[in-house]
Amino acid sequence: MRSRTSGMWWGTAVEAPDPALLARFYSELLEWPIVHEEPGTVVVAPPQGAVYIVFQEAAGYRRPAWPPVDGEQRAMMHLDFQVADLDGAVAEAVAKGAVLAPDQPQDHVRVLFDPAGHPFCLCRENG
Hints:
The protein is of the alpha/beta class. It has 2 domains: 61 residues, Signal recognition particle alu RNA binding heterodimer, srp9/1 (2-Layer Sandwich); 66 residues, 2,3-Dihydroxybiphenyl 1,2-Dioxygenase, domain 1, CATH 3.10.180.10. It is built from 3 helices and 8 strands. The strands form 2 sheets. A 4-stranded mixed beta sheet has the order 1-4-3-2, covered by helices on one side. Strands 5-8-7-6 form a 4-stranded mixed beta sheet, with helices on one face. The longest helix is centred in the N-terminal third of the chain and has 12 residues. The termini are far apart. The relative contact order is 0.19.
């Protein structure tokens, strides 16, 4: 597999009702620039890496329920970010538009919702 992926970019796609809004949120949160934008699609990537997150417009988008609720849209994936200062990182994310989830299952992790309602986690280093 290494020979097939050597030198390639890799990333993930995230559906959203407003991909530009969500891309700006993650761009500010991660301090990654927006590297591509067209109607319905916006990409953020770190300046020195070969990874990206593409935000794509999704018609009929439904916010995922977290924790999962039977019969509701489930989160199909989530992003985790390791941080040195958990409380400071949570405060910064909330100031940028995230919402702290009411259910917090671990002491060293904070679950938040991005502006489109996707859960993401801030994880304390050496948690």
